[in-house]
Amino acid sequence: MNMEYNSVITDFNRKVQEITVLSHAIPAIRQGVLLCRQTLSRLRDIVKQTGLNTQEAEIRFFKEIKAIPLSWLIYFTEIGSCELRKPRADRELQKQFYKKQLHKADKFFQRHREFVYYMEQGHTHRDPEYFTRKALEHFPLSTGIEGYRDPDFSTSHDLLWAQVQAMDRVTEHLEKNIEELSSGSFSVLNGDAGNYLAWTGTKTDLVVLIYALYSGKVINHGQADIAEITAAFETLFDIRLPQVYKTYAEIRMRKGQRLRFLEELIFRLSKKMDEDDAF
Predict the structure, then answer these.
(1) What range defines the domain where residue 165 resides?
(2) What is the pLDDT of residue 160?
(3) Residue 195's pLDDT is what?
(4) What's the chain look like in SS3?
(5) Which pLDDT value is given to residue 135?
């Protein structure tokens, strides 16, 4: 049973990686939505055919397996909505729009802070309540969307857990867009008004890169510490990273792809080499 699920998820992770490194244009987002729906349909079929015969298997499926394509489906839907609704011409209006969406994401995390804390701390004592279908035996008589969920393919908190993971990615997407729109404020290097370097990724991505260089001991023969490397990048890109250690701690607490930024760099470079070889 695990082999079937793992095969589906492995295939999904490979395909979603290819989509996310392309762009966040609407066609790519539509591809992502379709991939997620197809994967969820495949997982539902496997569950119907093989069942989830133990509580451990049920918890693992709804907590670790189904959450992957479901969270990406929510992510693609959210950023697709943002891209369709954002102002088209004025960069400042676009920044205000993204900041407003960022505020909404923060309110979501505040509203569910107890559950987020439970998951981030790796607790498991409430997993039978959150991630088994037994908790859905008594359906509420309400008109809310919860009343229409498939009881054979849902638990009380699997959707919320997927939303938490999706909103983490949405937050990174919004922060990156804000940074890119603000890149015109970066200072000029070497006194040449035509030559400057602007970091247009998220600050979180830059922190990942800093720690990767530090861990690799490739600067000053491994003698440079985090503070020195951070200061060098702050000067290079005219950017402030006042909470680099806190950011690193938050990255460590993430579930799943903690090093997604570095994996994307590897994928893009490998893809470029393959394209160059083709010529």
Answers:
(1) 2-181
(2) 95
(3) 52
(4) CHHHHHHHHHHHHHHHHHHHCCCCCHHHHHHHHHHHHHHHHHHHHHHHHHCCCCHHHHHHHHHHHCHHHHHHHHHHHHHHHHHHHCCCCCHHHHHHHHHHHHHHHHHHHHHCHHHHHHHHCCCCCCHHHHCCHHHHCCCCCCCCHHHHCCCCCCCCCHHHHHHHHHHHHHHHHHHHHHHHHCHHHCCCCCCCCCCCCCCCCCHHHHHHHHHHHHHHCCCHHHCCCHHHHHHHHHHHHCCCCCCHHHHHHHHHHCCCCCCHHHHHHHHHHHHHHHHHHHC
(5) 64
Alpha carbons 176 and 262: distance in angstroms, whole number = 16
pTM over 0.85: no
Residue 41 falls within a domain, yes or no? yes
Weakly modelled stretches of the chain, pLDDT under 50: 140-145, 147-148, 185-194
- Count CA atoms closer than 13 A to 116's CA, side-chain side: 17
pLDDT value at residue 189: 39
Q: What is the pLDDT of residue 92?
A: 83
Which tokens is 172 given?
């990174």
Q: Are 105 and 170 in the same domain?
A: yes
What are 210-248's pLDDT values in tens digits?
999 999 999 988 888 888 898 888 888 878 887 788 888
Of the three residues 148, 181, 214, the one that is the final residue of a domain is 181
